[in-house]
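Whether sequence alone determines local backbone shape is best considered at the level of individual chains. For completeness, the protein is quoted in full, as a sequence line and a line of structure tokens:
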Amino acid sequence: MFKVGDSVVYPMHGAGVIESIEDRQVLGETRSYYIIRISRGKMQVMVPVDGSDKVGLRAIVKPDELNEVYEVLKAESTPMDDNWNRRNRENMDKLKTGNLPLVAEVIRNLVRVDRVKKLSTGEKKMLSNSKLILASEMEVSLGISEEEALTKIEKLI
């Protein structure tokens, strides 16, 4: 269980801080919710405390745990489906897990595809969002700026 002030990651949105834990009535049912301020976009999300593990809410990784992410970014690209819809769905499924090595894999592969042939508008948006999600966690974990995190990601690929 997390507490107020904890830095956490919410998949598909990135790093944030638990501002409060509140009881709220939603659809006639009162439950406890984490109220999380997402640093990117100044968004606030409510996550049920008893369902937080199901949505992938987790603590920020420690700096040494980022080494695996760096290795994924430097590694050879993995094969991706030629069909845009299937490739998009596979990448989205990886991003939804909140698993940083999988997020890094999506970023690496899309950056390298973009270098050879231009990405579709949807994939460009996915790449941009993925980079920001990873960068937001690196910012908190390493105590660096978003710009420094994005530069580090680009240099590793």
